[in-house]
Write a structure and sequence with these properties.
Length: 101
């Protein structure tokens, strides 16, 4: 969704924090939101967008429609759909399949 510059560190079941990476380097550690998976997904999407905008801003790149996009989390069957929507419609999205135990 954000390309190869933004990534997440490894997460184990029960972890309450996620490491965010920018260009392969640790940028920040985010505590996970309380509540169900939808709250956690929305928080991560929103935080990832903030990190993306900051990273682009630091190198002087204008983010275009990404700057005004709003995070949206929904379900489609068993999959989560994470999307950024702007005034003109969808800016980017990713589908997250269920984790098989």
């Amino acid at each position: 969704m954000f390309g190869p510059r933004l990534g997440f560190g490894a997460v184990k079941e029960g972890d309450r924090e996620i490491v965010l990476l920018w260009d392969g380097q640790v940028d920040s550690v985010v505590g996970l939101a309380e509540g169900g998976p939808e709250n956690v997904a929305w928080q991560l999407l929103s935080t990832a967008q903030d990190l993306w905008l900051r990273g682009l801003g630091e190198e002087g790149t204008h983010p275009g429609v990404w700057a005004t996009a709003s995070p949206e989390v929904s379900r489609d069957g068993l999959e989560w759909v994470l999307a950024l929507r702007g005034p003109g419609g969808e800016v980017a999205s990713a589908r997250v399949p269920p984790v098989e135990g």
